[in-house]
Amino acid sequence: MKVYLAxxxxxxxxxxxxxxxxxxxxxxxxxRWLSSHVEAPEGASVEDYEQEWAMNDxxxxxxxxxxxxxxxxxxxxxxxxxxxxxxxxxxxxxIAVGPARNVFCRLPEVELAPTWERAIARLCEMRADAxxxxxxxxxxxxxxxxxxx
Length: 149
Hints:
Elements: E1 2-6, H1 12-24, E2 28-29, H2 46-63, E3 66-70, H3 79-89, E4 94-97, E5 110-113, H4 116-142
Parallel strand pairs: 1-2, 1-3, 3-4, 4-5
């Protein structure tokens, strides 16, 4: 299962640790911003660099199966909520880690988790559900116990 982590830039180091934990239990983290450079490369305009950065995030959200957004600490920027909205529009499940900081956190498609530990546990449950659903589909397509015909 692929997970996108949305958070304020100021939480980047913490999110790198969360990404590490997720990969240790078998998830793929698509958040490219966690390994992005802070400043535009020499000779590149800031605008072009920011546009490239935004496009990388859009592609990473599209590649994810689920988006986890941290709402634990308030932040000045709103990028994480733009990312959350993109995931919701694409029909992806969203786990908000922390309190409901805006009305969109109250949507039925958004699941609130009080801590990252609880969010990771929920992701594991979602993955198990997806594996079970896939196995059930395989059984139904093969006519029963999965034996080849």
